[in-house]
């Protein structure tokens, strides 16, 4: 991309205001406007500007400075703001289709302003609305205009009090009654109450409810989703048989009304079943296009991938905001100095740089990865009716990437925000400086749409499965997006020795990239060996997998994702299209992220070397 | 200590209520009552019980469940509760003197209930009150009964908007005017406003204010403290010339009114100077018992050590609460299982145990250390008029230990609470389950009474200073509490090789203890070499110290404290007085904490071994 013309830059990227940061900014080795244009592209910058301007110009979005917002008031405001955002049509459907990144941009811009608003909007339009569009059929299309106009307001109800991670074990039931052509929705006890459901607490009129589908005769066909009216849209009073309410204050995101619901033999029409993965005939016969129940279950929860990919982007925004606050503070805050008279900005201290700059690099690397992942997922979802092997393989690869990158991004952000909070000292503890909100509102990214530690098992399971296929004499080890292709050279990589002659020669991301390939191969081998050893000692598959997580499968999944992020960013900053004045800066960011990230695994790298030296030796602690 | 008699146990430690935890509790290999009695002692258990009973029986301390407390209401309630606690005289002065641990017990019991209350009480009585008692003289004794009756309410004002860590650079001035025998207290600009001062926002009538003392002729004698009335105790209106107010919402501790204050040429009597470290005669001559200004400055900030030691204990309580919540949840929460029908408690999963159990061990090790430190500090402070060399050495040792253990304890708690929050999944994100409050209210422990990273420099500075003295041919390397005595064998320790023949043989805290001694010696050598190398390349002392923090001095300080905590707990659990039925459990906790803690340094242990193998070789990355 060419450098911006003067007109573009002036309108899209006005000069920053003067002030205490000017001294540092004047020392920059590159033009920040050129960097912004290269990373975001003119279209996205324009979209961001239009969204932020819309919020800035509307008094409904004014911050309530100086007085505390009660929980109720915050929830009410968030609902009104959500309605306003939908009404303003900040993004046209054709723009979304043309460039799926625009959806991500809208969500993250709203989140930059307030995550409660972004999530309320996301839950209604993209989770609830998209579920009806994707899991329903023509008979449900009538709801879409009502969703867009907020004539009905929605939520997505999977989790129950006692089942979150293990969604398959959800206990709400939907028994089909052919006499009236209705399903009877029922919560057997309080532990089966829907719980945590965003928008359900006070505002949703409709819910997509996951329940175990039973046909006459008592046969269970597993989890299906139903479109259920839970409140009167005019009065917001609960529908008969529905007990629904707010679950109370959370650590953050209190503008969202998270709710619970219990269904007492609630009758809903047969056509309320979102029947894309399975349907019931008026007479009560279950029909499904899927032969395999497991495959059907996977398809019915497919939407979760999109949620997870968005969480990756949300985490990146949180880290971006925190790092910006902390670095700007560090550049202006002076404390101590070589003499009693002269104090230096705390950013000049080695410790402060060491704490903050790697997170700055992480923002760039993860931001790039997040967009790449989202675009691939969007493309995959557009081909959802494609039943080819490649499409299935792509689905598995994306599922593994999404399942591993949500943990990586949300944890990196969580740690980074904490570091930023501390790096700003007392001022970082003042609510107005926002680091607390960022920490509290990033925190659930580690939990919802799949607990991080549980999700990582999906990623390691994918890698172990691929290797097993390969060892059974299967096809080449490769994947549609190429993230696992290096594993084809698995034995050779494990034989490689690190050979960088100097420290200076390591300050380039290709060096940690190669080390990461080796590390992933090593952890893959360790994981396979551990699982096999567990099985040989009589463990069931379930036990063998559980007992191989710590130091093996869990580390494998994280290292694989780190490698993928490092590789994507390395390739991105080394492509010929990078404007020459930006190359050095971007390549340093790439090297910093990769080396810092790899640094977590140093003990393993040394240990492996030690084992190689004494191949027969026991693996004993050493110093 | 003997096992409790039946009567004792029944009254002090009633049986736990039945419920879903019973199955796990029934499997315990030891008697929890015996453990509690051994760890706490009967006196402390009795005191705890009396404090908690007093709170439970008084409606003023009832939790406001179900509705949100506004910031103002929380602040008001906290003030009233503080007054009630003082009025109830939960602890007699003679008990405090007889057993200083009782003070810690009172603070931590109040904090277990609500940290805002504990801190309000602590700031008024022990920080403000103690400062007057310790830094003032007979002329200030009249204030003490008023403090105890809360006729006046106090705060302790050091920090300013732009100076926290660098307290020496505080800019509030106090010019002495012999004409009226008054000091003129003045804040030159907003950046010199007192800021963050707990209790100052709305409730304090008096403040101990730190300011630069000037005598006629314009000579500055450095920082001194003054007792200043800031509000009318009847109306709470500010005194003339004092601009005072609340700094607004914080990430937590919102029951405390943190405030700011600016003084506009406020005249205060000469006798308001807390004159223990220096005084001004009516004519305006400065007199001090200290010859050395640095020594005087140290003495004037001496109180901070007590604050820091209490923070160590506060952090331990936070971790204790979080770990209890998370472990109990994990023992009852079931998710997934070997079959679709049978789900297992999440505590049975390897990952969950790996995440939580080390923090359980950390609670025990740090709790023991915290009490030991507090007792030593109390003893040291009782001998504050002792001018012996041993007392001075003890002061330096305790300062180094306090400065390093506040970071270690507050960070361990902060990370542990986050892990507990995540380990409880969605339910951990619900405010009522308290993990959010614990995280938010532990967080400032990393910052106040000295930023953790800054404080660590005090600890490394102490060690480097001792070694320098030793190398200059000084006396033996030893200290009154013996925490550094092992360094006398510094070269021998560095020559030692790790030689534990089996993994099983390492599951004992003496093994990591020995490794820690080696590690501290290694890091000490690395730190000295780095500082010297910096100086040889032309760095000033200031630069050399700053540029040697990361990977060297900072790691050294942390490792030294970890070693000290490990050593204290190792010795404690191996003493003959441990009841035989508790030995195995306590020794396993000791081993777990020590090994887990040492595990952070594995890369360094490998690296050092590699260097030894190739002594001439460059220190290059390796795998």
UniProtKB/TrEMBL annotation, chains A, B:
Needed cofactors: FAD
Single GO biological process annotation from the record: lipid homeostasis
Catalytic residues of the enzyme: 449 (proton acceptor)
Domain Acyl-CoA oxidase/dehydrogenase middle, residue spans: 155-264
PANTHER family to which the protein is assigned, alphabetical: ELECTRON TRANSPORT OXIDOREDUCTASE, PEROXISOMAL ACYL-COENZYME A OXIDASE 3
Gene Ontology CC terms: peroxisome
Name the UniProt record assigns to this protein: Acyl-coenzyme A oxidase
Record pathway: Lipid metabolism; peroxisomal fatty acid beta-oxidation
Family: Belongs to the acyl-CoA oxidase family.
Organism: Panthera leo (Lion)
Chain ranges of the Acyl-CoA oxidase C-alpha1 domain: 304-464
Function summary: Oxidizes the CoA-esters of 2-methyl-branched fatty acids.
């Amino acid at each position: 991309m060419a450098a911006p013309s003067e007109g573009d830059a002036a309108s899209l990227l006005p000069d920053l205001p003067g002030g205490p940061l000017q001294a540092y900014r004047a020392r920059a080795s590159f033009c920040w406007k050129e960097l912004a244009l290269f990373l975001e592209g003119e279209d996205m910058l324009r979209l961001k500007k239009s969204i932020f301007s819309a919020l800035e110009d509307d008094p409904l979005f004014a911050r309530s400075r100086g007085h505390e917002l009660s929980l109720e008031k915050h929830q009410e405001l968030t609902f009104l703001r959500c309605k306003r955002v939908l009404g303003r049509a900040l993004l046209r459907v054709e723009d979304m289709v043309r460039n799926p990144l625009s959806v991500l941009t809208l969500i993250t811009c709203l989140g930059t302003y307030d995550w409660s608003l972004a999530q309320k909007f996301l839950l209604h339009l993209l989770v609830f609305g998209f579920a009806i569009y994707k899991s329903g059929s023509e008979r449900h299309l009538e709801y879409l205009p009502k969703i867009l106009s907020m004539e009905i307001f929605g939520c997505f109800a999977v989790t129950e009090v006692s089942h979150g991670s293990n969604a398959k074990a959800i206990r709400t039931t939907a028994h089909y009654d052919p006499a009236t052509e209705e399903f009877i929705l029922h919560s057997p006890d309080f532990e089966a109450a829907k719980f945590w459901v965003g928008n359900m607490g006070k505002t949703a009129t409709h819910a997509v409810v996951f329940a175990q589908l039973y046909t006459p005769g008592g046969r269970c066909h597993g989890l299906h989703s139903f479109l259920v009216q839970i409140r009167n849209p005019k009065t917001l009073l609960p529908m008969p048989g529905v007990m629904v309410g707010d679950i109370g204050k959370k650590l953050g995101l209190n503008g969202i009304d998270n709710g619970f619901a219990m269904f007492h033999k609630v009758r809903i029409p047969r056509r309320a079943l979102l029947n894309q993965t399975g349907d019931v005939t008026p007479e009560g016969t279950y029909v499904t296009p899927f032969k395999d129940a497991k495959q059907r279950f996977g398809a019915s929860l497919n939407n979760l991938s999109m949620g997870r990919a968005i969480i990756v982007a949300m985490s990146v925004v949180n880290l971006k905001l925190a790092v910006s606050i902390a670095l700007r503070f560090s550049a202006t805050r002076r404390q101590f100095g070589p003499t009693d008279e002269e104090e230096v900005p705390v950013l000049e201290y080695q410790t402060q740089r060491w704490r903050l700059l790697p997170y700055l690099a992480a923002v760039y690397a993860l931001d790039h990865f997040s967009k790449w992942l989202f675009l691939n997922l969007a493309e995959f979802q557009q081909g959802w009716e494609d039943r080819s092997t490649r499409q299935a393989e792509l689905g598995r690869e994306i599922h593994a990437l999404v399942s591993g990158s949500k943990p990586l991004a949300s944890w990196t952000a969580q740690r980074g925000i904490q570091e930023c909070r501390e790096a700003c000292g007392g001022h970082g503890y003042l609510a107005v400086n926002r680091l607390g909100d960022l920490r509290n509102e990033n925190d659930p990214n580690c939990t919802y749409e799949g607990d991080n530690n549980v999700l990582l098992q999906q990623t390691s399971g994918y890698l172990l499965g691929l290797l097993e296929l390969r060892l059974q004499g299967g096809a080449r080890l490769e994947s549609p997006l190429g993230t696992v292709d290096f594993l084809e050279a698995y034995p050779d990589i494990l034989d490689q020795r690190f050979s960088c002659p100097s420290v200076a020669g390591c300050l380039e991301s290709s060096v940690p990239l190669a080390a990461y390939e080796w590390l992933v191969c090593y952890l893959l081998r360790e994981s396979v060996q551990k699982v096999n050893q567990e099985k040989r000692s009589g463990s069931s598959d379930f036990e063998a997998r559980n007992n191989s997580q710590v130091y093996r499968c869990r580390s494998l999944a994280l290292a694989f994702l780190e490698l993928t992020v490092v590789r994507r960013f390395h390739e991105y900053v080394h492509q010929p299209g990078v404007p020459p004045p930006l190359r050095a800066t971007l390549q340093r960011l790439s090297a910093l992220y990769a080396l810092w990230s790899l640094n977590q695994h140093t003990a393993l790298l040394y240990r492996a070397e030690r084992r190689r030296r004494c191949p027969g030796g026991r693996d004993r602690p050493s110093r």
